[in-house]
Structure formats: C-alpha cells, structure tokens
Design goal:
Elements lengths: L4 E6 L6 H11 L5 E7 L5 E2 L5 E2 L3 E2 L8 E4 L5 H4 L3 H13 L2 E5 L2 H7 L7 E2 L15 E2 L4 E4 L2 E4 L4 H13 L2 H10 L18 H28 L2
Parallel strand pairs: 1-2, 1-6, 2-5, 6-7, 7-11, 8-9
Antiparallel strand pairs: 3-4, 10-11
Helix pairs in contact: 1-5, 5-6
Protein name: DJ-1/PfpI family protein
Pfam families: DJ-1_PfpI
InterPro entries: Class_I_gatase-like, DJ-1/PfpI, INH-QAR
Length: 228
Amino acid sequence: MATPLQIGLMVFPRVTQLDLTGPLQVFSSVPGADVHLIWKSMEPVPSDSVLAMTPTVTFADCPQLDVICVPGGYGTDDLLADDEVLDFLRKQATGARYVTSVCTGSLVLGAAGLLKGYRATTHWSAVEALPLFGATPSRERVCVDRNRITGGGVTAGIDFALTLVATLVDRPTAEAVQLRLEYNPAPPFDAGSPDTAPPEVLAAMSEKIAPFRARRMEAVRHAAGRMP
C-alpha cells in the first residue's frame, strides 16, 4: 500500500479563510491524501470572517509533511516575528517535497528564510515586500520555482492547489478535482487585478488598505532584519 501524501495547511488568527479553504477543498479531494490543519494548539482559531478554524494537529505532533502550505491574511503580520512558527516552517521545509503559500503567506516563508534565491508571488498589495526577503517577485497567478510554489491573492489558492495536484499525482486527477468542484470561473467584472480594475476602484481600494500596507511593510522590514 502506498504511503499517503501528507499535506499540511497552517491556520492562525486572522487567516483569510478562502486562502485556506480553497486549497483545502482541492487537497481533500485527492485520493489517499492525509490533510492536516496545523497550529500551536488544538483550540479553534478565528479567521478574518465569522468562520473559525479548528486545527487537527499541533506543531509538536505534526508528521513530516510532503507539502507545507502557509495561507495569507492580515494575521501573517504577527507571524513574521513569531519564532515558534518560523522554526516549525524551517524544520518542515528540510524534509518537505514542496514548500508553498497562498497570498501573503509567502511573506511568512520569506521571514523564515525559505524564499532566498527563489521567484515568488503574493497578493498584489504585498509584492514590494518580497525582495526584502531575498526573493524575486513575480506577478504570475501561480509561481513555480523548483520546489517552491506560491499562489497570488486569495482566489489564486485554488489555481495553486490544482497545479500542485497535477505535479504530485497527475493532470487527469487534477482535472477530475476541478470538474468535481465545477471550478469554471466566469467573473461578472474584470476588476480582479490592479492591471484591469477601473482606476477609480483601484484608487479607492489602495486608499482603504494604505494603513494596513504601511503596518505590514514595517513588520516586513523588522522580520528581514532578523532573517538567519
């Protein structure tokens, strides 16, 4: 009997739930995969919405993973200086087949020193942070560089997960998962990227998130100064 794939997604306070639940739904559809939700304790973790996440395993009890994935969200700012999180990621990365992220989860990988010399992507509002961690920023929706696979913002997590399933198993399996999920996006507006959004929409959103962006960059600079 083949050894099950061990896939782990980190949960943490103020995670963007779709960053996590999009890939989780894809990975949970892979035959023979064991999927874990990992955190420091087994207590429910609040997301950035009304949905709370219940971890299935702690850092201490987590098996060696084939895939470690860090989703994003405003909560990543706190993880950038969290040595328990960063040490766990470094330890898992030594034996993982793939070290991955969605959205601003890539900044946490960067703070752990796991993106030095790699191309990586993240949410459009955080791209400028990647070079501070020694990464080359990419605006691809899914960026693959050797065994580092990073997804762009939020909904890109589904694309990232399907890409990874095609690599881990095969393309027909990934396509079957896509069909099961009826993942056939046809958005009503072409505003999902700063390259295509109406200028007034981009300006309003940029103004709204400016304080959060400034706090994030402060946390990034501090984390970059602590990198091993």
